[in-house]
Amino acid sequence: MPSSRSFAAGVIGGIVGAALLMLVLFLLGVTDVKKETTVTVTAPAAFASPGAPSAGRALTPTQIYDREATGVVEITSTFPSTGTDLFGQPTGGGVAVGSGFVVSRQGYILTNAHVVSDSGHLATKLTVMFKGAGSQTRSVSGKIVGVDAQSDVAVVKVDPSGLTLNPLPMGDSNAVQVGEPVVAIGNPLALEFTLTSGIVSAIHRDLSPQTGTNIFNGIQTDAAINPGNSGGPLIDASGNVIGINESIDTTTGGNQGLGFAVPIDTAKNSLGQIVKSGHVDYAWIGVTLETLTPDLAKTFKYSVEQGALVGTVKAGSPAAKAGIRGGTSTVTVQGTRFTVGGDVITAVNGKPVTSAEDLVQAITAFKPGDTVALTVNRHGATSTIKVTLGTRPANL
After folding, report:
1. Of the residues 104, 208, 230, 238, which is catalytic?
2. What is the mean pLDDT of residues 70-79?
3. One domain for residues 204 and 353
4. Model's pTM, two decimal places?
């Protein structure tokens, strides 16, 4: 069976474990966000804007590397011991190596959450290495500004004093097309500042990082990605970062041409919130969902053929306050249990919803406090219910 792996390279212990596959039935929202309390950021920095190749021509991999390799960093994370064994020896902890890239001259760096966080434990020490001329490098200390486990994004900061920082321009991941050329720059297997190239193999992939949450609109690439590439940039032919290299699907533990990146638009949202407040808030309505397919609709005698079927509604949640109703009975179909009789949500602000994943993705695009109009089918009658979104509780 292929396995999905995040790929910060462990040197002594380090980051271990395959990504957990998220179930379709889940509580709508996100995981808690951690932050390093020793860092305080009071205002967003100015981040690099998308660039464009000269005269509209695509850049070659060599041109991209020459222009942007100095904006890529190697991050070495030291993790604390998590306890002791029967003989009193420390367990857990260790060192892991990943990648990242500069996004502002104020010293902010984007990377993956799993590069600086291991099973919820933040690294206690970060060493950030910059590429200089030729084979020269320079290492400085870094600090964790905040971690967004939901999107597998983290922000690290270095003191910019005495550094010539090269922020990489961030592009538009919604404009990415299958077949377009891309390059990855990172530190695979601790081989510093390595360039690989390929194409965008697919888009709209759902990624499941180590937290078991879903990242929507992931980018698939055949550019060689290996342990240590985690957190590094996936760059298009214009030199713009379109994703953060996050995981691989593999049967061998190494690259097999199935690499995946967090879309940069997702990372931008996390970056802005973390720089401003040290954490990320996600909108929440408080329901469990199942996807209603045409076959299930026929079996359960629903008048609509598809949508997000509400299983349960959490008491006191935004959905409960708005009057959304959950299921009334449980039915087993071919060994799978379904909670039926609840509302079917078929649109958000008029945009069609055909699955549970569609609804989760739609809600994620909003902020806590926003009001959305849900098109709801209940016992054959369709109505519009307005829901004011809340903030997902920290314990969910």
Report:
1. 230
2. 97
3. no
4. 0.79
